[in-house]
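Protocol step 4 of 6: structure prediction from sequence.
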Amino acid sequence: MEHKSNNTQSPHFHKRKRNLCLIITIVAVLGLGLLLLILGFIVFKPKHPITTINSVNLNDFRVSLDIPNLSVYLNVTLNVNLSVKNPNKAGFKYGNGTALLKYKEEVVGEVPVPAGRIGSGETLDLDLMLTVLADRLLSNSNVYADVVSGTLFFSTYIKISGRVSVMNIFKHHLVSITSCDLSINVLPQTIENSECKYKTRL
């Protein structure tokens, strides 16, 4: 008796094959996702931008006393040179900011910090010119006393806020804040002391 072989496969076999392909696809996608996660949070772990104040110079300093009215005319211009290094494996893109000049916590001058981008491992140098706006100090009674004593106390505040994007998937928000306390000697017209503090956060 002659038997004919049947090469057609059962529906159950095809179903198992489809399920196997589906499982392999899911495992591959999960593996790729895990790999990207490891790269994003370990290999490309975000690092704070490193801000350094290189110098603070007194570009202009003019003062005149109005003794009868116990008031003072003051013109001060500071040149602040700072560098911002991006230690990340991806570019750091930051938005528009503002550098402030303060006299005893009162904002007396400001200058915009234009938006830009710092490449991976690159360092950006910034020169900022901060000038006291004369009308900001007219109503401050402490200025006259400080000028007479021979020392004026100012501080600078610079904030740079931006984002590091890794493979256009992982985006990390980074903020760098730099503040410096300065004392200006009135008679020699020099910066006597300066102390800078740095703060960063994610």
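Step 5 (inspection) to follow. Residues 12 and 45 are 48 Å apart (CA to CA).
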